[in-house]
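Before the break, one more example. Copy the sequence into your notebook; we will annotate it together after we see the structure.
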Amino acid sequence: MRTPVIETERLILRPITIDDAEAAFERWTSDPEVTRYMIYNTHRSVEDTKAWLSTVDIESDTAFDFAVCIKDEDNYMCGSCGIYYKPEIDCFSTGYNLAKDHWRKGYGTEVMTALVKFGTEVLHQRVLHSSFNKDNAVSGHVLQKCGFEITGEGKGTKLDGQTPFEFFDMRYRVPSSKETYKLYNGVEIDPVGFGTYKCDNGSVRNALDMGYRYLDTASFYYTEEVVGSEFRESGLKRGEVFIASKIWPTQFGYEQTFKAFEESVSKLGTDYLDLYLVHWPKLSARDNEWKRKLIETWKAMEKLYKDGKIKAIGVSNFLPHHIRVITENCNIKPMVDQLELHIGYMQQYAVDYCRANDIHVQAWSPVGRGRLNEDETVLKFARKYEVSPQKLMLKFLIQQGISVIPKANNPVNMKNNLDLYDFTLSDDDMSFLMSLPERGFSGEYPDLVEFEGRM
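Here is what the structure looks like once it is written out:
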């Protein structure tokens, strides 16, 4: 891609070439007051500047170097700027420098605003890198004004390999807006819920205090009483919190379902559920009666739904051939399917089937139960976006319209899992992560698991 010409209100950014060497040397590359903040050392002759500019390729797809010119001064060149790909962080990096007699005129902000727009709208990047010398507070303010945030700091040397150079690393991340998901019956659910499987005492209360308003439990988790008591301690009203629970296969059957439901709402201390799910389609591969029992169970759930005791009904760990048992024998199709989904295990056939049938997809084990925290690919993209591996994995799902149910006992992790809207993964990165070979699978496949003897 040829380096373009970019116009702003007061400036023209045009490709810089070796023909600009003398003007650049005269105006800033030879000025120690300017270069003290730059990664390169002060140029001692025009030849130094020519050597720098001889590396510029205006036809490159990964490096775009611009001369900064002022419109009202007959396109006087007062500095340079650029955006270029840094393979070590898999990210485009931006920066600028201006002649000292053109400092503090707002040109830096104008330049960086233009580079951000070029990087996000033309190069289609969703994260950009920059840095500034620790002694150069003005550049730091400029970058922050343009949306960059400090994400770290480092020490190194200038290009001579000797002069110390301390800097702050920064990232510009395209944010996204938070939105709830609407089920086909109109019920809205939050994109991030709080999973309560094996949760510690106090975790539910902490989650509610931090802003979670979706609690996911199940009869099999043995956490319904804890969820109910800590919800009541929070002081929140029942209508402010979405509570989901699940029926276990040993509780299947028409009458048994009503009993299981009453046991769950009694432990939770409520008279209705926002969402009730069938936890698994069957007890084991040897369960030859699973279809009959599932149909009976679902018909009871339909009755509870029609009576207003459940606002939405759904399934968990159901693949298309399980769902068809319901849709071919009952009246109401599931509104939700909760599946094990994460980077490296996306069950795309099941996800596509649900989407085609207007069934909302939720993800349990969205971070692979910690199995992917040290995965090299996950860590690579986490470094690129300057987020935790967990935050990256959750965003990967949220960005596909899949709600997530992470669990955490650590308050820091709770907060991070909820705060997913300050960055957006690029289309190319989403494509790459969607296409990874299988990794992180729990091994719990619904037609092969053995639940007999449990609960």
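The longest helix spans residues 290-306. The chain has two domains: 6-173, 181-434. Try to locate both features in your own notes.
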